[in-house]
């Protein structure tokens, strides 16, 4: 079936194509009666706007890029829901890309979004410094970048949405201490992500306060999947390292830990307590349910969208950093 165009509407209504175009864009110079005639005819004839053409006329694509390390866990999906809450009612579309924790793929995704001429990009990066050059290039092209959760190098002046990783990590580790734990392992992700170090600093500070810090209990995983969690806990057990609790950088690492412990008939939390940071639905889908720092992911997405709109409206608007509160949710694993 032939696609209906503005020329078809023009012929049907005996109006100029420029009038049709302005009416479809809700131009205030088109009277209400004419606008209604155009919109009614467009609906009746099944007209679908050429979004590329309309964006050239309006100067905006009404499209936002969303760049994340993964869409496997609920983390990014919850943030995306918050973004949609704000942007969908305003007529924006969202292009979703996934980097698989690979900065080279992230770079290609950013270049793709630049080619699509998106109005802004909301991003959770996979490496603190690797793509700083392209971040600066994209912002230099007038496309705002809004960061959430993981942050770029401090040299970049960007708007961002975060939680206080260090403080919340301290509070979670202190919870473990107050339940009688003294040999607390911190399973950290790659140090190319600033959150990893921030949470380690919180972990270290509280253990030093109680004079029970042992640097040998800081273990770095090679990645952040469930399998990486399994590998770390197997390594600890094989080396006969004494520990009574685990604080994991992410829910997925904690789940790998829990799976392996249970397979080895090690009781949770009686023998080993387990806690994590992220607080997605995964925390309540494992057995026993996982104690976690629960980030307000949907609200983080909403705030990131609002920051993007601020920059779209006024490219010279000052960058803002929004720190949101995270909740410590104590469950059966501790």
Automatic annotation (TrEMBL):
Keywords: DNA-binding, Transcription, Transcription regulation. This is LacI family transcriptional regulator. InterPro entries: HTH_LacI (IPR000843), LacI/GalR-like_sensor (IPR046335), Lambda_DNA-bd_dom_sf (IPR010982), Peripla_BP_I (IPR028082). Pfam families: LacI, Peripla_BP_3. The keyword rRNA-binding does not apply. Residues 4-58 form the HTH lacI-type domain. The lineage of its organism: Bacteria, Pseudomonadati, Bacteroidota, Flavobacteriia, Flavobacteriales. SUPFAM superfamilies: lambda repressor-like DNA-binding domains, Periplasmic binding protein-like I. The keyword Nucleotide-binding does not apply.
């Amino acid at each position: 079936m032939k696609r209906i165009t503005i020329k078809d509407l023009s012929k049907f209504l005996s109006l100029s194509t420029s009038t049709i175009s302005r009416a479809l864009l809700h131009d205030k110079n088109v009277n209400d009666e004419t606008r209604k005639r155009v919109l009614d005819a467009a609906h009746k004839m099944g007209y679908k706007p050429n979004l590329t053409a309309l964006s050239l006329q309006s100067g905006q694509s009404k499209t936002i890029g969303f760049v994340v390390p993964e869409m496997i866990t609920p983390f990014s999906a919850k943030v995306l829901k918050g973004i949609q809450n704000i942007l969908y009612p305003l007529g924006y579309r969202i292009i979703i890309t996934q980097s698989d924790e690979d900065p080279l793929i992230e770079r290609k995704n950013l270049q793709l979004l630049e080619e699509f001429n998106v109005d802004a990009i909301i991003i959770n990066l996979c490496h603190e410094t690797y793509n700083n050059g392209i971040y600066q290039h994209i912002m230099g092209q007038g496309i705002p970048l809004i960061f959430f959760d993981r942050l770029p190098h401090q040299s970049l002046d960007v708007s961002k949405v975060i939680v206080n990783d260090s403080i919340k990590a301290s509070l979670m580790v202190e919870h473990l201490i107050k339940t009688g734990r003294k040999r607390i392992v911190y399973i950290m992700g790659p140090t190319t992500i600033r959150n990893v170090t921030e949470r380690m600093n919180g972990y270290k500070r509280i253990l030093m306060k109680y004079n029970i810090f042992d640097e040998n209990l800081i273990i770095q995983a090679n990645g952040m999947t469930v399998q990486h969690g399994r590998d770390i806990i197997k390594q600890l057990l094989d080396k006969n390292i004494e520990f009574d609790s685990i604080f994991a950088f992410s829910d997925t690492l904690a789940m790998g830990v829990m799976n392996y412990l249970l397979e080895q008939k090690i009781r949770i939390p009686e023998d080993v307590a387990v806690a994590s940071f992220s607080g997605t639905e995964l925390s309540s889908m494992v057995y026993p349910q996982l104690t976690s720092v629960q980030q307000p992911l949907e609200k983080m997405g909403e705030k990131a969208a609002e920051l993007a709109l601020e920059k779209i409206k006024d490219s010279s608007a000052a960058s803002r950093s929004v720190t949101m509160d995270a909740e410590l949710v104590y469950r059966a694993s501790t």
